[in-house]
Structure formats: C-alpha cells, structure tokens
Specification:
about 300 residues, alpha/beta, Rossmann fold, binds S-adenosylmethionine, phosphoethanolamine N-methyltransferase
Length: about 300
C-alpha cells in the first residue's frame, strides 16, 4: 500500500503559497491535499475547503471568506447531521477531520472515525485533532488501507464489527486509489446505518477516454485499472450494490483547469504535475461528486 501511495509532505508548499511573511520553518495554517474547486478562488486552501472560517495566522486573527469549495461540497453531499457518526476515509493530514470538529457550516458529529494510508499523515492528524478534542465528539483515527482485509480486526469497515454503524461516509479525492473502489463502496454499504449516506469527490472518465489516460495512469500509478470507469458505470455499480437516490455532479471544469493553472504558477518543479493534470483532463478524466443512500 505505502509503496504505491504517491503522497508525502509536498502539499505543505501548496498550502503555504500566498502566505508571505510566514516565519521560516513554520507550518502553514492548513494542510489540504486535494485538487480543489476553483470556481470562486485562486487560493489553494480556499479551493480545497470552502466556506467561511477564521484562521489564526501568527498574532493577527484573519477572516477568510469564500463560497462552497471541494471539502464543503462533499460534506454537504454526505448529509452530515448533528449527533451523527461520520467516517472520513483518506483524510490526509487531517483538515477534513478538523472541519467536522470546528467548521461553522458543518454540524458536529457525536462520533468521528477516520482511516488513511500514510503513517506520517495519521501521526500529524492525531496531533492536530488533539488540539480540537471536545467533549461533544468521540474521535477514533486509524492508519491503514481503506479496504478491509480479513482477518484484520481493527478496521472501521470490518463487516463483523459490532460498533455502531455510520450515518455518513466521506471519501474526499481518494477513492480512485483504492484497490478497488467497488470493494470500498460495497464494504461501506454494509457499515452504513439505514438512511445513511456516502459521498465521494472522485475521478472517473468519459466514454471516449484516450490512450494518454492509460499512459499517465500506468506511468504514475495513479489508480488500479479496475477504477477506470465512466460516470454511468460508477452509478450503475452503486445501484447494483443497493444504494438509492444516487446522484453525480460533474465539476471537472472547476477542478482540472484551476488546479493545473495553480500548479503551473508554483515554479519549475511543479510543471510536470501541472502537465499531468492537464493531460488527464484533455484525454477524458472527469471530476465528480457522487453520493448515494442506504435504504
Ligand atoms: C488527494 S489526497 C486527499 C487527502 C484529503 N482527503 C484532503 O482532501 O486533504 C488522497 C489521500 O488518500 C490517501 N489514500 C490513498 N490510498 C489510500 C488507501 N488505499 N487507503 C486509505 N487511504 C488512502 C492518501 O494517503 C492521501 O492522504
């Protein structure tokens, strides 16, 4: 799992871009690691998150205002409810967990569970969540693969688990990595409460996706080939599993061009990444928000 995971700490530089005057060696105030929703912003953290939030930058409190962007869109699609039980999968350095615990537009869950694949991200998230621990939300974080593999016992998607089911499962810009996404959707279904929702910000492909997609994906190990599906196939899989009220929103035009342009402006080292994002979009990749409900 970790050998294939392309992530690390490169995203800190992206979060820091634009926050001039930050003391050398100090971490940026956010540590987002998704492709963002760039409709109303040119700033990386705002594109990743969205909404209104007060961030404490140095000694001066600063209010950052922007409209709904990626993390908030997925959270809203997941129908989060006050007092609910949320599973956040692929949480990276933990900003989406912090959102659940502190964002003014997100209802506070009674239970927040997370699983992500990189140990360094898990450790960092534990640290960050610790600072926001409240008596209202019980938090349980795991380090591991999103997919449950028997005979594992400590896993939120263990079908034999006797712990309470989830009212919302969120996968923000990560399920295309899972081996496989279909297994994840199936396991999630069995651990959702009746009436519970899953919401994903994910990548799929137009019917006419080209050989560039296959080349980029094979070259960069972006996703298993089983996950290269069209939106229609994605929805069909969810319905076959049993999800109802399955919805998808294609937000590609607000994701790929904005992210590609932002990366291109970050200097020489980022150009190859920018080129890869542009190539994916040009050859049929689609960025979608997908949600479904368990009856
Ligand atoms: C694009 S990042 C998104 C991170 C976070 N959701 C955010 O928005 O900042 C994808 C995340 O999924 C994690 N990931 C990739 N494959 C995974 C797997 N098989 N199981 C669990 N997490 C995985 C990566 O380590 C990374 O943290």
């Amino acid at each position: 799992m970790s050998g294939k995971d392309p992530y690390g700490s490169f995203h800190l530089a992206l979060n820091a871009s634009g926050s001039r005057g930050r003391p050398e060696g100090r971490r940026p105030p956010t540590e987002w690691l998704n492709m963002g929703y760039w409709k109303d912003t040119k700033a990386f953290p705002e594109a990743c998150e969205g909404g209104t939030r007060t961030l404490d930058i140095g000694m001066v409190p600063k209010l950052i205002v922007c409209s709904t962007a990626l993390a908030l869109k997925v959270t809203q699609a997941g129908g989060c409810k006050a007092g609910g039980s949320v599973l956040d999968v692929g949480y990276g350095s933990g900003d989406s967990l912090l959102m659940q615990l502190s964002h003014p537009s997100v209802p506070r869950p009674a239970r927040l569970t997370g699983i992500t694949s990189l140990k360094a991200h898990y450790d960092r998230s534990l640290e960050r969540v610790e600072d926001l621990r409240s008596q209202h939300t019980e938090v349980n974080l795991y380090h591991g693969d999103a997919i449950y593999h028997a005979p594992e016992t400590e896993h939120p998607l263990d079908p034999a688990s006797t712990s309470a089911t989830f009212t919302t499962i969120l996968a923000l810009d990560c399920a295309y990595h899972f081996r496989t996404r279909e297994d994840f959707l199936r396991q999630s279904y069995s651990r959702l409460a009746s009436g519970g929702k899953i919401a994903l910000a994910d990548i799929c492909f137009s019917t006419a996706h080209g050989t560039v997609v296959n080349l980029l994906i094979r070259q960069f190990g972006l996703m298993p080939s089983e996950n290269i599906v069209t939106v229609g196939e994605y929805i069909g899989t969810m319905e076959r599993i049993g999800y109802v009220d399955v919805k998808s929103e294609d937000i590609s035009e607000y994701v790929f061009p904005g992210f590609r342009g932002f990366l291109a402006g970050q200097g020489v080292g980022w150009r190859i990444f920018s080129w890869m994002i542009g190539g994916l979009y040009a050859s049929g990749a689609r960025f979608v928000i997908v949600s479904g409900t368990k009856t």
